Amino acid sequence: MPRFSLSQPDPKTTVSDLQDLPETPSPKPEASPPAQPRASKEDQSLNEQLLEAKLRIHSQIIDELDLTVLGELSEDDLRTQIGVFVTRQIARERLPLGSQEVSAFADSIVHEMVGLGPLEPLLEDESISDILINGYNQVYVERGGELELSAARFRDNEHLRRIVNKIVSAVGRRVDEGSPLVDARLSDGSRVNAAIEPIAIDGPLVSIRKFSKKPLTLDKLVGFNALPREVADFLFGAVKCRVTAIISGGTGSGKTTLLNALSAAISHKERLITIEDAAELQLQQPHVARMETRPANLEGNGEIKQRELVKNALRMRPDRVILGEVRSDEAFDMLQAMNTGHEGSMATIHANNPREAITRLEQMVAMGGLRISQEAVRGQISAAIGLILQAQRLSDGSRRITHVTEVTGMEGDVIQMQDIFVFNRLDTADDGTVIGEFRATGLRPKCLEEMRRRGIHVPAETFDPTHPLLEVGAKP
Predict the structure, then answer these.
(1) pLDDT at 128
(2) DSSP, res 227
């Protein structure tokens, strides 16, 4: 068989040339019964046949490919030449595909070669926020806060494992039986977590948290009714005045999105240092120094944890330190930084409410094994943190800021807190939509005076509890 050689494209060759190649005619549609909610066995068999053919043709291309020319071609040129080869192979194997299906089939081959295979269409779909893979034949996606099963699938677990290896190797990490858990990221900043055998029983488990190519701003969050305009303006002013903020919430509640949006309030003259397990923050400043943890190597050496990075960040002349997520003993060093001239620093934490966020911070400090009393730890927390912002994903898939809570100090050995704004859930509509309202509690935050001294004035009616700042859903 002659070797398939990629060469620089002939200027006379166009994509329309693909239409001139022989093609198996598609049968004319006949009258058929109403579509069933689930695919028939014939459709499933055809899908499996096409998947096998795609991987077989992919293998043939790799076997016959002149790799020396691959790096010299643009993706469009590569797609065109691969399309010619694929169309001929489809005609030779008499696969029942039309011209549009042939083009899509060729695209999937290109995705296998230079991308992430079946994941590429899902990554390009901007309506998808999460991709959740449970083995080779079950790929769920999240749209608008709701999970749905997609048509994407892999040939087998080995095929999926190969895609996972391609992802993690691109950021210098590894995943194998000795280290079956891994955090990584894609080139666009999307966060990836993978678990493989023997941890994952039925095949690799992969979670991909996609991020918008255009970071969400506070204005867009207001447009989505995630928070009222008055609350957004107050938070913008507080961050600008270097009030230290902790963003609390569960998985997928929008903590990182809110942190990215609030970063717009930080002056471009400030030096920011970000510390993350897998770099995903999209801050809106020009002077950002990014650091990322490193896992241990094959010999179990070389691991660098967040705590070491926080300590080192303080030697790098930061104006603010921003932690992607506080989850362990780095909490104490973070509090130290916030109390020693780095006001305005920010971090996220997993917790169900503001009070629980404080409790979790106490527990994390204790994980460091330091000989420090509980009262001293609480004193550090109350002195370091100004605001706690609670984010939550509600049952209808919407994401809201449910609490803006101020830490006011200590009374005895108890940290005192007061809610400034809250989201009250009132009812649930017949279609599942959450009905509720944002309302001020009537308490005025202590940081208002500092904001006033810096020239930021918040209207008094912002804190008026007699009327809601925003109503969402239909009235009950």
Answers:
(1) 92
(2) S
